[in-house]
Amino acid sequence: MAASGSATPQNFCHQSEPQKSKQPSTRIPIGQQSKSWARYHLSPRFPCLHCFEWGHWVQDCKRKKAGLPAVKDPQKKNPNAILKKSSIFSHPCIAEVEVEDEEPLLSSIQQAPGYTSLVLLDSGATHHVTENATLFSEYKKIDLTLSVASAKQHLVVGKGIINLACPSGNLRLTEVLHCPNIPGTVISISKFVRNDGGVKFEEGLFKLIQNSCTHYSLLKGERWFLCLGSKMYCNAISDYSKDFLRLLHRRLAHLSLRTVRRMQRLQSARGLPPKIVTNDEHLCPSCSLAKSKHSPLQAESRQIVQAPGDMVVTDLMGPFPVSMDKKVYSLLVQDHYSSLTTFYPLKAKSEAANFMIGWIEKFNNLTKYTVKCLRSDNGGEFSSQCLKKYLDSKGIVHERTIPYKHHQAGKIERTNRTIAEAAQSMLVDSSLSIELWPYAFRQAVWVFNRVLHGTSILTPYQQVTGRTPDLTPLKIFGCKAYVHNLLHRKDLTPKARELIHIGISEDSKGWLFWDDARRQIVKGALAVFDENKRQVVKGRSLEVSTINIQNIFDPSMINKIGYQDEQVELMNVSASLHSDAPGSYGEGLASADQQKWREAISTEIASMDKMEVWTEVPKNVASSVLGTRWVFTVKRDPVGRVTQYKARIVVQGHRQIKGLNFDETFAPTPTFTSLQCLFAAASKFNWPVQTFDVTTAYLHSNVEEDVYVQPPPGMCLKEGAVLKLRKVLYGLKQAGRFWWKHLSSILRDMGFVSNQEDQSLYVYRMGNDVAMMWVHVDDGVLTANREQVMDCLKNDLQARLQLKWDKGIHSIVGVEVARDGGRFFLHQTALIDKVYGMLLYLAQATRPDIMFLVNYLARFLMGTTSKHWVALEHLINYLRGTRNKKLEIETDNREAGLKIFVDANWGGEGSRSQHGFIGFLWGAPISWNSKRQTCVASSACQAEYMARAGMWITQIMSAIQQGMVPALLPDNKAVIQIATNSGSRKNSRHIRREFHLINEMITMGQVSLDWVNSDEQKADIFTKKLGRQKVRQSMEKILLECFVEGSVNV
User: Fold this and answer.
1) Do the Cβ atoms of 699 and 597 come closer than 8 Å?
2) Are 677 and 957 in contact (CB under 8 A)?
């Protein structure tokens, strides 16, 4: 019925044959038969499947090589034809093989306990066979006979489906025979291809592919096996699997697999796998992000050194972001001969000399070599008198590289890049905070010293110390670790602490761990590591959570509406005819639009002269001179049409020094909530609205410090003269602050008062006249209760600043605005067409329906997987399908004042609640948000009670209408009972004291709290994933409607 035993490429059904006279047999132990022996002795006993002639294999068939078609199977003409088969590749349970008359047969079947975790892959068997009845998930009793190569018959008692637990996942096999007398499990390759999946034979190994999961075989002796992941024996197979190579790659600071294979072949370190059988280079996302590079420059000749210490090279990198222990620079010291490298994190460059002296002393004392020459660049940290005196006293030559000739220190420069890329890869892979970069550098250097480089057959560590490095202490940087607590008390508290592994200790035998809760480094020698899970710091989740975004939009509708309407398409074609804005002054004068750029430059220079921006002064009076450059931009309207070519003189502010030419830099920026409040007020009272743009805004404000700059390219000055700024230029660190102070001063003189909650929203009140102004840098919106008030304020403002007024309102800060009587429609159609990277801006401005999903996906920015990209693509498709949706701001006289709907989804991921709110001013949506709670809410009542973030809207509107009492509308009655003091406080003591502020506000009459039915809760869309129907209902509740004919309603 079935035959197992052969691993030849052909599939045969074994049948019994007539007995022949036996010749003296030769017993050959398993594992000693070679493939050449098998080719010579077994090929005459099998037919060629191309010509069905005896004596050769298919690959040796002359008929096939000549390109002739295959001969039909003779068994089809004669069913009694006997096809014999032998077995040299058999199950490990077969003890040995007898060779009789050049025909190997199975002499015995024995149980082999050492191989119970292996499954034989047999290309000669016609059926899957197992002895283990517990593997079956579906089972049917049958009565059949199984024939094996030894001509023995075995009883088959059942058939069904089994699931094997393999290291790469479950493997499902169908039509598996249950034969209690056959030890172990056999997988038929031919049966697997027909019923269960696909098989590839590459690099001498079988790959079983099922449901996009690949299971790799193990070659032991002359047989192929599949390892079961549920047994300890599977640790042996992991050494040969891709999963282990990926693990090793991450442990070795993301070292290339080519170097790992070379080290394994040369046995350069202990702890490497005994054999690496794959040649596949896997794609590491962290390396792709951290190691992107330009094409390498051509290498130049190197100075030859004879022994360690003959030349030591050093280099300093930085500044980096400030670490947890205030380090900002990286100092690398490298022995040029061996490449042995040491890393020192520095707080200041001045520390480099002392660390350099300490390194030389240690090198001379701990090795049998002495330092003879030190090479460095011309940095001031290597030119100190302290270092010079020390080198002279030791007789060490100090070589300095020529400026801008980095190739003279090319080796240390390349090492710098290697270490930095490895450290960055580990930080990206682990999602740890950037403040831990010194420990990532230290781990990268530790690995660098213990792996091979270039053509050397010894590692740097071995070349200097003479000892083979040991890699067994190495663990994945950033993995979770359970560290034994030596101060553990004898009670029921845990005996270990869950920390984060960040490297190997240099001054003790143990590891370094990061305790994020206490923000401290911990040393430990007793720890259990979980390298399959990466820890998360400060709420940045890296684990792949199940993202089940409902199919709220029908993808088939995308084809009906298209990604862009005809108007935007034409604008894109028109825009593509214009070249991009030039990157420099020279490029601008050499571009196709040079005349327009010349005009823009002349306009800018004329503005400078008119505004008296600078004065010429001798260079010797300048304490520090900053550079300048031209920046060119093309200004477009919301649909992409070119409206203006702009040229700006920009100061290279990155060279400014705090305390010398700048001090404070803070300047407030407005919120969309205050803008929508302005539109709501204009809708409620039918006020006129106009937008304006301040021409050369920064040039109106004065500079308070002494700032000197070079003239921009193309501008001539007297020899030895520089420019002293009287007015602010773009690029200065304090430019935004000076402009804000200047504008605020002008508006105060006009009678405007800035709002305490949003300092970019100004309110004017004079008797019965009221006006509001919203300003974003140099763009603003003005509304007033009467046209006469508008004209008076416009004239007064025009006399103080250079303004351009638009008739009505069409767009502001990228948001398209349409007005229809008392209704305002806000949308960002063009932005949706380039939505990548702009989702949060879109959600905050005009699309509250995506706020929850945008905030949810933002949790995985540092650990993005394919699932997250699929979810993002789904969200973008939804936006494209609903791109014509507009946010309607229309007030309803039946709606009184401010209503804030609050909701919370208690017990989310990590037991943290997701709360959201949306505020309606006279029935118009003006503010919304969705946020994950930073603390764990222990009850649904507390989760609702903490969702009160929208109350500050009241402070904004109090300047327009006095006595407005906002109404908070949760759908949880318990929160109302606690907040109004009618509920029991005994069970609410777990709520932190600051959250009881709302109770005081209710008592003082500053806010009201009313219950709303869950079906009428408008904030539900901000707290959880909803289905299609509920999304449609929520969009109707928040007044997100489509008013363009032919669009799709979701």
Assistant:
1) no
2) yes
